[in-house]
Amino acid sequence: MAYFPAFLKLDNKKILIVGGGYIAYEKLDHLLDFTKDISVIALDLSDDMAKGIKNNNLSFEQRAYKVGDIKEYAVVIVAVDDIPLQAEIFAESKQYNCLCNSVDSVDYCDFIFPSYVKKDDLTIAISTSGASPAMAKHLRIYLQNLIPTGISEFLKEMKDLRRTLPKGKERMKMLDKKAEDYIKSWSNR
Ligand SMILES: C[C@@]1(CC(=O)O)C2=NC(=C\c3[nH]c(c(CCC(=O)O)c3CC(=O)O)Cc3[nH]c(c(CC(=O)O)c3CCC(=O)O)/C=C3\N/C(=C\2)[C@@H](CCC(=O)O)[C@]3(C)CC(=O)O)/[C@H]1CCC(=O)O
Ligand SMILES: NC(=O)c1ccc[n+]([C@@H]2O[C@H](COP(=O)([O-])OP(=O)(O)OC[C@H]3O[C@@H](n4cnc5c(N)ncnc54)[C@H](O)[C@@H]3O)[C@@H](O)[C@H]2O)c1
């Protein structure tokens, strides 16, 4: 079955990444667009991962994962090259209020990472439900080239209108028309 798309609020939620290699860095890089409350536990770090940790002042412990490490975390990303450990941490996460993502199998995931386009308040997330991460990536690149640079300003204008105009049918109609015209103007380019 396909995954339900939701946008998770990360305020006051601690995130743990286990692993410090290439894939851990990909996940870290994406998470940093949304939060800085990230800790890392890994036996060793790639250069990118070491830089990411240093530049963002993240907490890092150089050691093997041990049972109980996830206790304080709301989300754990298990980015180790060890599938049995991914299975163990996923099973352990069920004892706690902790959502788990494992990088080798959706069987050990409560959620999966989408590919995404982010421009200020706009986030477009793309998933193939794990069928083809490569396809998710290329669809992201395609969409990235389609979205006009002025989208952030347009969204700011729409946000201001929603804040200042009184709620009701008239506002709804006006905002709907403005959004429709904006999209039409850009698809006619
Ligand atoms: C979208 C993206 C987001 C991100 O990473 O943040 C992401 N993978 C990306 C890239 C990518 N990953 C892989 C390739 C090689 C080509 C290929 O296999 O297609 C490429 C392409 C590349 O790197 O160029 C290999 C791969 N990926 C997974 C497995 C295990 C498995 O399938 O069981 C294997 C095989 C490992 C092996 O056999 O060695 C699993 C997952 N990867 C997901 C997300 C989740 C499903 C997303 C969805 O489809 O909805 C899921 C299920 C779990 C998760 O990771 O959350 C990011 C693109 C970001 C961007 O650029 O926009
Ligand atoms: N989800 C995806 O998009 C995707 C894509 C390609 C590969 N993968 C899978 O991701 C996994 C990781 O790949 P990689 O290229 O980052 O590997 P890598 O070898 O570069 O990194 C593995 C990391 O795990 C750490 N580690 C291993 N055992 C540990 C333990 N017990 N405690 C703490 N840290 C530990 C190592 O120190 C290292 O930092 C592989 O199994 C690969 O098949 C996933």
List the helices and strands and how they pair.
Layout lengths: L14 E4 L3 H10 L6 E5 L4 H9 L3 E4 L12 E4 L4 H11 L5 E4 L12 E5 L2 E5 L6 H14 L4 H14 L4 H19 L2
Parallel strand pairs: 1-2, 1-4, 2-3, 4-5
Antiparallel strand pairs: 6-7
Helix pairs in contact: 5-6
Bound molecules: ligand PQ2 and nicotinamide-adenine-dinucleotide (NAD).
Q: What report would you give on this structure?
A:
With 189 residues, this protein is α/β, with parallel strands linked by helices. The protein folds into two domains: 15-113, Rossmann fold (3-Layer(aba) Sandwich), CATH 3.40.50.720; 151-187, no CATH class. It contains six helices and seven strands. It has helices at residues 22-31, 47-55, 83-93, 133-146, 151-164, 169-187, and strands spanning 15-18, 38-42, 59-62, 75-78, 99-102, 115-119, 122-126. α2 links the parallel β2 and β3 (59-62). Ligand PQ2 binds at residues 26-27, 30, 101, 103-106, 109, 112-115, 127-130, 132-134, 136-137, 140.
